[in-house]
Amino acid sequence: MAAKRKKSSKKNAPFFLKIALVIILIIFAVSQKDVISDTAQNVFLNDDKDSSLIKAGAFNIQVFGTTKAENSDVMNIISKIIRQYDIIAIQEIRDSSGTALPQLISLVNSDGSMYSYFVSERLGRTSSKEQYAYIYNTKTIDPISDPFTYPEPENTDPFHREPFIGSFKSSEGLFNATFVVIHTDPDEAKEEIDGLYQVAEYAKNVLPVDETVVIMGDYNADGRYFDENTYTPMKSKGYVWVIDNILDTTTGTTDCTYDRIVITGGNDFYTGDAGVHRFDTEYSLTDDFTKLVSDHYPVYAMFSKGMQDKTFDLFEIPKTAGDAIFGSDNESVLDESKNTANNSPDEDNFSNFNTGINIEVTSIDVISNEVEIKNSGQETVDIEGFVISSSKTKNSYVFPKNSYIQSRDTIKLISGVKTDKEGVFCWESINDVWDNSGDAAILYNTRGDVVDSIIS
């Protein structure tokens, strides 16, 4: 007799239980959609961030106080914005209780980030006081000294809210800079922007080294408050405005470049990458919600950490400015008798320096990554701080100190490593600088005006 098979004691689960289990799993997945999406976005942002760069910015958060701090949705967006910066200068903090900023920092750090801050005293000539703050990532930025408000000369009062000055350095690498944050009074924007020149010159002496000075914030430098094309000492030789006049830094219906970043004292670390942070587009916000966050967008600039002592390689940063390469005999390059530019910030010198020159971008070869620039005029021209940019790749090169083109001479800008050949400047990048499918080279002066351009 054949042996009987023993029945399994494990019964099949009823069909309706299987259906119920599937429904539960679907509900759980939907409930976690935002968490999964946000986590994926954070992973993308972290992977996309170049560890050899410093992102610095300025953000007017429009009446940042207890009322805004009570809006959790708005605070979440602001905290996400801040986490994208190594250091960011905040303006328009209006909070007599002093609780809103610590609350924001706590929220920023709620994901494990390690940000800290310095905040100024309450500033202003009227009863409506404001504060500035530097918020920085302690993993990437170290303060060199405690920030302080600009000590206005005795018997003067050039600023409604005195600029807040702070020196910081990268936790690794050689980057160091003194930052100046300003929120000008719109009714006195022209006078205060002019006054920033003295602040910048003062800031150059804050650190006992040749350093970068970054003056950023809400300049109110547009519209009815300020004529972008007018003279100001802040447009003197050696001052580079990296936020272009065509950009809109406001979230409302206006189209104005109120917020600016100006770099002086050395462009050694500036990569040529700067712009407006459109957080509304990044986070798919409605116009109404965007205005709850602020009436301004942040502005930013990217800097190299200068990690030469930590296997840092400039070839990895295609947007960085290279060094000018001249012959060893500087006298053969610069004829002082023909040099019309000087360091005086007077209006006449500004006109002589930036008008009447005849600089042309004469050729571009996108395959060999070469651009030629010619001085067709009668005078030697100082092009320190001039910027040449690609319209396609957005790579930019800032001409360094002692960059001159003599009358009738042509200089060449190439990729690759340094050369001792006279009149040749190098991107110091092994990557393609220009778009091989077609590109345009645009040359800007220190005011951000287009000097010339050429299409390949």
TrEMBL record:
<dbReference type="GO" id="GO:0006308">
    <property type="term" value="P:DNA catabolic process"/>
</dbReference>
<dbReference type="InterPro" id="IPR001322">
    <property type="entry name" value="Lamin_tail_dom"/>
</dbReference>
<keyword id="KW-0812">Transmembrane</keyword>
<dbReference type="Pfam" id="PF00932">
    <property type="entry name" value="LTD"/>
</dbReference>
<dbReference type="Pfam" id="PF03372">
    <property type="entry name" value="Exo_endo_phos"/>
</dbReference>
<dbReference type="InterPro" id="IPR005135">
    <property type="entry name" value="Endo/exonuclease/phosphatase"/>
</dbReference>
<dbReference type="GO" id="GO:0003677">
    <property type="term" value="F:DNA binding"/>
</dbReference>
<dbReference type="GO" id="GO:0004530">
    <property type="term" value="F:deoxyribonuclease I activity"/>
</dbReference>
<keyword id="KW-1133">Transmembrane helix</keyword>
<dbReference type="InterPro" id="IPR016202">
    <property type="entry name" value="DNase_I"/>
</dbReference>
<dbReference type="InterPro" id="IPR036691">
    <property type="entry name" value="Endo/exonu/phosph_ase_sf"/>
</dbReference>
<feature type="domain" description="LTD">
    <location>
        <begin position="346"/>
        <end position="456"/>
    </location>
</feature>
<keyword id="KW-0540">Nuclease</keyword>
<dbReference type="InterPro" id="IPR036415">
    <property type="entry name" value="Lamin_tail_dom_sf"/>
</dbReference>
<protein>
    <submittedName>
        <fullName>Lamin tail domain-containing protein</fullName>
    </submittedName>
</protein>
<keyword id="KW-0472">Membrane</keyword>
<feature type="transmembrane region" description="Helical">
    <location>
        <begin position="12"/>
        <end position="31"/>
    </location>
</feature>
<keyword id="KW-0378">Hydrolase</keyword>
<comment type="similarity">
    <text>Belongs to the DNase I family.</text>
</comment>
